């Protein structure tokens, strides 16, 4: 269910959203305003007010080829270009079809026009963890670092089909924009 309205001044308001599918439950409150006056285009910096009441999703409720559980809590305010607030994401026992993941954990803090990862942790398997720290901006700018020690290539179906084996080590950092990306560091393939 979704509660929305279109005001006489051309403002579209979205105030609540709820979804139930199988054992998955999503319930959000708050809202945003899309200014549709004049050009009928969306204002890029709409006000934002979002509170996650319930977000507990089983991926198998939406696709037979996916599995795992994703939860999210927190809230955001401010605007689309300058969000403020915090969100916490947790995922477990994920099978994305091409990659299995034991867990994903993220605490994101939005302030000053940036969304900070504190950190994003991806657990591929026991003792195979990648960490991403830094920030991204709704304008497309970023400053991120990524580290991982020995992620097994055999867990990725694309690498497996290509006959690749071994482990991948990552030590990268970058700053730029997504339209003009830049990064430096090392990717190391450990054979065997």
Describe this structure in a few short sentences.
With 192 residues, this protein is an all-beta fold.
Describe the structure.
With 192 residues, the chain is an all-beta fold. 3% of the residues lie in helices and 67% in strands. The protein is built from 1 helix and 12 strands, in the order E-E-E-E-E-E-E-E-E-E-H-E-E. A 12-stranded antiparallel sheet has the order 1-2-3-4-5-6-7-8-9-10-11-12, with no helix packed on it. A hairpin with a 4-residue loop joins strand 6 and strand 7 (100-111). It is globular and about 65 Å long. The termini are far apart. 8% of the residues are buried.
- Overall mean pLDDT stands at 89
> What's the SSE pattern?
EEEEEEEEEEHEE
**Low-confidence blocks of residues:** none
Kindly state the percentage of residues in helix.
Answer: under 10%
Strand order of the largest sheet: 1-2-3-4-5-6-7-8-9-10-11-12
The profile of the biggest β sheet is: 12 strands, antiparallel
Strand share of the residues?
Answer: over 45%
From the spread of the alpha carbons, the general shape counts as: globular
Q: Termini distance?
A: 52 Å
What is the total tally of β strands? 12
Tally of helical segments:
1
The computed structural class is mainly beta
Radius of gyration using CA atoms only: 20 Å
């Amino acid at each position: 269910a979704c509660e929305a309205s279109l005001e006489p001044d051309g403002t579209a308001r979205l105030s609540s959203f709820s979804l139930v599918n199988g054992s998955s439950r999503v319930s959000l409150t708050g809202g945003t305003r899309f200014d549709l006056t004049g050009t009928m285009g969306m204002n890029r910096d709409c006000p934002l007010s979002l509170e996650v009441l319930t977000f507990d999703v089983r991926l198998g409720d939406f696709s037979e080829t996916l599995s795992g559980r994703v939860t999210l809590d927190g809230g955001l305010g401010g605007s689309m270009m300058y969000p403020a607030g915090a969100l916490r994401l947790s995922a477990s026992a994920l099978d994305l079809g091409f990659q299995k993941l034991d867990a994903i954990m993220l605490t994101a803090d939005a302030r000053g026009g940036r969304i900070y990862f504190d950190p994003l942790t991806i657990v591929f398997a026991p003792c195979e963890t990648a960490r991403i720290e830094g920030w991204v901006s709704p304008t497309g700018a970023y400053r991120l670092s990524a580290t991982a020690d020995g992620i097994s290539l055999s867990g990725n179906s694309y690498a497996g089909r290509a006959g690749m084996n071994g482990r991948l080590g990552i030590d990268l950092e970058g700053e730029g924009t997504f339209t003009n990306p830049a990064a430096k560091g090392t990717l190391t393939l450990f054979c065997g």
